[in-house]
């Protein structure tokens, strides 16, 4: 996994269309697989198939987590057609607009002393410029 912030920005409209199409194909595959897992889960009786239901639920949870942390979708707003920025602290991708809003929110909170550096219990002076 990457260990620093990175923004993937595509300017060429044709490349944007390709990116959006690929993200659409991947999202449709995820939706289809998730639906199949849910249908398979709903066919099982809880009393008789408790272990199988747990396995299916775990598969669905892993699929959801992988989807939400992928570059295909913004972790905050769900956008699938935007340029994305990777947040290494959350290990997730955000659209540029959501990342900027989140970044500004934390800078404001840090300057007001509401966020503490390293959990040390003291206001973070000099943590952010």
From TrEMBL:
**Keywords of this entry:** Coiled coil
Where are the coiled-coil regions? 39-66
Record's protein name: Uncharacterized protein
Lineage of origin: unclassified sequences, metagenomes, ecological metagenomes
């Amino acid at each position: 996994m990457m260990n620093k912030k990175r923004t993937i920005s595509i300017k060429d409209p044709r490349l944007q269309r390709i990116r959006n199409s690929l993200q659409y194909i991947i999202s449709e595959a995820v939706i289809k697989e998730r639906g199949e897992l849910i249908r398979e889960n709903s066919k099982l009786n809880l009393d008789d198939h408790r272990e199988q239901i747990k396995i299916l639920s775990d598969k669905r949870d892993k699929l959801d987590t992988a989807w939400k942390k992928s570059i295909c979708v913004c972790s905050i707003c769900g956008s699938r057609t935007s340029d994305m920025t990777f947040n290494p602290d959350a290990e997730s991708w955000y659209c540029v607009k959501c990342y900027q809003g989140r970044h500004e929110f934390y800078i404001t909170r840090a300057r007001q002393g509401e966020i503490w550096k390293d959990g040390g219990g003291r206001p973070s002076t000099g943590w952010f410029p």
